[in-house]
Specification:
The complex is a heterodimer of chains A (about 350) and B (about 425). Chain A has 16 helices and four strands. By secondary structure, chain A is an all-alpha fold. Chain A has one domain. In chain A, strands 1-4 form a two-stranded antiparallel ribbon. In chain A, α4 packs across α13 and α5 packs across α12. The longest helix of chain A is centred in the middle third of the chain and has 27 residues. In chain B, α8 crosses α9 and α9 crosses α10. The chains are: A mainly alpha (about 350), B alpha/beta (about 425). Chains A and B meet through α4, α7, β1, α14 and α15 of A and α1, β2, α3, α4 and α6 of B.
Amino acid sequence: MSSLTMRPCGDFRTSYKQDNTIFETKTIRWVTIFTIIALCFAPVLLDGYFITLLIQISYLGIAALGLNILVGYTGQISLGHGAFFGFGAFASAWLNTSFNIPVFLCIPLAGFLTMAVGMMFGAPAARIKGLYLAIATLASQFIIEDFFARAEWFSGGASGSMAEPVKLFGFVFDTDQSFYYIALFALVFMFIWGCNLMRSRDGRAFIAVRDHYLSAEIMGVKLNKYRLLSFGISSFYAGIGGALYAHYLGYVSAEGFTIMMSIQFLGMIIIGGLGSIKGTLMGVIFMVFLPEVLSSGVGFMKMTDWGNIPMVIDGLAYIKEMAIGLVIIGFLIFEPEGLSHRWTQIKNYWKFYPFAY
Amino acid sequence: MRKTINKKLLLSSIATTVLLSAISQAQAQDSVFVGHLADMSGPTAFVGKNYADGVRDSLAYINANGGISGTRLESETIDYAYKVPQAIANYKKWKTRKNMVAMQGWGTADTEALISFVARDKTPVFSASYSGHLTDPTAKNPHTKKPAPYNFFYGASYSDACRGLVQWAADDWKKQGKDGKPKFTHIGANHPFPNAPKAACAEYAEELGFNVLPPVVISMKPGDFKAQCLSIKSSGSNYGYIGNLGGSVQSLVKSCSTVGVDIQFMSNIWGGDKEVFAAAGEGIQDYIFPTMTPFWGDDVPGMKLLREISKMSDESGKEERVHHYIRGVCSTYFMKEAMEWAKDNGGITGENIKKGMYVHKDWVPKGLEGVCLAANWTSEDHRGVNQVNIYKGNYNDGDIKIEKVSQVTLDRRDDWLGY
């Protein structure tokens, strides 16, 4: 995948084609294709629990990639990503129930609606940056959350709104196993799109805005246009993720799309690696599996005699909550460039083994 | 050398994992599994912990005393910290790996996220989310957007509890012999939980001749609510329904007591217990709140069993449990008896447990007489309880007094079903 950090020595490229490739080497391309094919067989091989987690990774991953495009690639900040995710969920359910648009069309349409809303709230980015922008986007979080609770025609207010399962050519994707393929398709599609975007003219402009906005402006990059576009694309991704979430659950409630969710998205991309597409996916996988691994740890404790007392289990429950915070702090200190950087280091280590310098 | 150690460690940990899972599968013979989602560290932990203790102690007690007519009752309590993704993941894990037959849930977040799944998987869920829209299993009422056929809860819905309070307020107004129309205000955050009874309750208040004022919005988080209290004061409202819980209620009561608002507060079921009164202090004067159970230490026949259940986590038996705990016990015991019926009538499956919920009329679980209110669930009406006990709390300089004021029984009106 297109790398944006400085290239290690010995990594020569002799043509533009090589410079522009999605997959750095043939091996990576084959591994990716093979992984996707293997994932297609997951419902046969894995039980329902893992399928749920994979679906979760898909919809959260799509939304997190959107945030990474905004934060990691364009250097803006958003504290309202959770609300945009929720907006996509409600928008898709609303389009489907109010206008009888088929669900598979509602999902991209919800993406575009969220994009419009995101650009509206991203407009201040044309004028302000840094901490001020963070606070401006924080406002969008609260405004949209309040909108969910009030706009009965849109979100169903207190009683929430229902979302039909995806139907395609008469087949209803209402089980985890069938919905998994929708989620997998969306994930692969959106990630390839993300990779493609980053090697295009617009993608390079985003990076220029991030690295040095003054230089970028002097070079002829329209700052306002690209900042706004980045907000739009980021919200589009959030909307698609949210819409998938809605049609997976079959029901959307205004609870859950809180500031905590926005922060969790930020946590995912920081752990995964800002400005890295594969890092986004790594961060999401990490964040989805961490609580599960920790709670199975609590589960093992319960099987022992000395561990199965409420005091120990309650204590572990609190530790589980703290652990997530601890992990983020740990990453910020020891691996600020995230899992993707760590991955590159591991790869390099094996490449030069045993003659690492 | 280091590598061999790592290998050994890896092998031994794999062996342990395999062994432990083998043990857990061996235990699974002639047993049923009930999942329990609790919030003990999230935003609703303030009351979630009490309720969860009630459910957990009951499950442990049932298991220690013969299970479901001899069938072992396995359970697992997971603190999902009010996070929807974790609730879903745990639900799926229990469903696919442990063959869960029923679940004890917690709040609005997990209950509503799982409505579609539990209906499809035919797994009854007993939640502590009392939203009115969970009570219409066949969507008879056009208000109902999404029928929830496998959702049950013990207690009156938020809407019904609020209606009960309004009914009490109307009587209270007459008793005091005041003239004119009493004014009613809904106070709470703009959030699904406080909003759940807002429209339904306002409608009924108007029906009873109240002048319903625009709702006052206060945050779910504790804060300084003097501005809101001043606007309540200037509106001259007589009866205020509090939709929030925990710290937010304490802040409201304190702020309004400072400002000097003369209003009769009536809270929802989560907004009034001894802990709240002790923390809120002086402002608690004739604070009205509903309960679905008696209080700890009340002289009722079922208190004996309740004390035994409480000893599961508190061996000394000295801890005073709040009424949320007792509701958790009732919720679990109704499930237990439905499971017993299911065992005698075709085996403990989700579908049979649901049928078991409809068998009894004026149903009180054995041993909990006087603790749990008599409940009636039917296949078309999931309003199990239509009674509301109304209590009054007073701070009295730290000597907290709680007394019963009245018991309201609500009609099972068709237009209130699922609303």
